[in-house]
Specification:
Layout (H helix, E strand, L loop, with lengths): L1 E7 L3 H15 L2 E7 L1 H9 L6 E5 H9 L9 E13 L10 H10 L2 E5 L5 H13 L2 H4 L3 E4 L2 H10 L5 E6 H5 L4 E6 L7 E8 L6 H12 L1 H10 L4
Parallel strand pairs: 1-2, 1-3, 5-6, 5-7
Antiparallel strand pairs: 3-9, 4-7, 4-8, 4-9
Helix pairs in contact: 1-9, 1-10, 9-10
């Protein structure tokens, strides 16, 4: 038996953190796909088999309204902030104000981020760049990836000096080789409520409900906190 999950990358650490124990105790495996929330929603709408989604609260609400997710099944894993990262071992820039953040981005040799159209953090980061008046100035130095985890992994592997990244805190904390510098300045703060929902087409409703309890309960609380979720 296997539960298929389509999830935003921000929740990967929570799911993978309990995966082995869940399978051992229930006999049910977890097959998770983690990427930009918009892409995951599109896969579900395209008919990809799925038992559970973990997306933003608003997207799950839309999928409940459209009948793709069971009404009453939505449960929050917690809030995830959008944050700034650098490669491990490099200097942490000051990013605590809009002026300081703009200076750090101007000085960066390359800026790593998730998809600025389909990912939560990428969309927000592009809005921040526009508000700072930097979108055109730094566009040639933007390095976009399908999701934040992929962006952070690529930044960790790059040996160029002066790199900076922006994505969800959980994706930064989950990636070896990168450091979380700080959340975005208060003016630009984004705390995203990652919410699960059980799909209407699930073939394993009992296991899906059990996994939902684990992902939002005490079985995963420490893992979620360590990964960057806030409650």
């Amino acid at each position: 038996m296997t539960l298929k999950i389509l999830s935003g990358g921000a929740a990967a650490s929570a799911v993978k953190g309990i995966e082995a124990r869940f399978e051992q105790e229930t006999g049910c495996a977890i097959d998770g796909t983690f990427s930009a929330v918009g892409e995951m929603r599109d896969q579900l709408l395209a008919g990809v088999p799925c038992d559970m989604v973990i997306l933003t609260q608003s997207l799950v609400a839309q999928l409940i309204a459209s009948g793709h997710v069971q009404a009453g099944s939505a449960r929050s894993l917690g809030l995830v902030y959008t944050s700034i990262a650098v490669r491990q071992g490099t200097q942490h820039p000051v990013v605590d104000t809009p002026v300081a953040l703009a200076a750090a981005l101007r000085q960066a040799s390359a800026i790593y981020c998730p998809d600025t159209v389909k990912s939560t953090a990428g969309l927000h980061f592009m809005r921040v760049l526009n508000e700072l008046g930097l979108a055109d100035e730094v566009r040639a130095r933007l390095r976009e990836f399908p999701n934040g985890a992929t962006a952070m992994k690529a930044m960790a592997q790059c040996t160029e000096p002066g790199l900076i990244g922006c994505t969800q805190a959980t994706e930064i904390n989950y990636t070896p080789g990168v450091d979380l510098v700080a959340n975005l300045p208060e003016k630009f703060a984004l705390a995203t409520d990652y919410t699960l929902g059980i799909c209407s087409q699930t073939q394993q409703p009992d296991f899906a409900r059990q996994l939902a309890s684990w992902l939002t309960g005490s079985q995963s609380e420490a893992i979620r906190r360590q990964g960057g979720f806030a409650f």
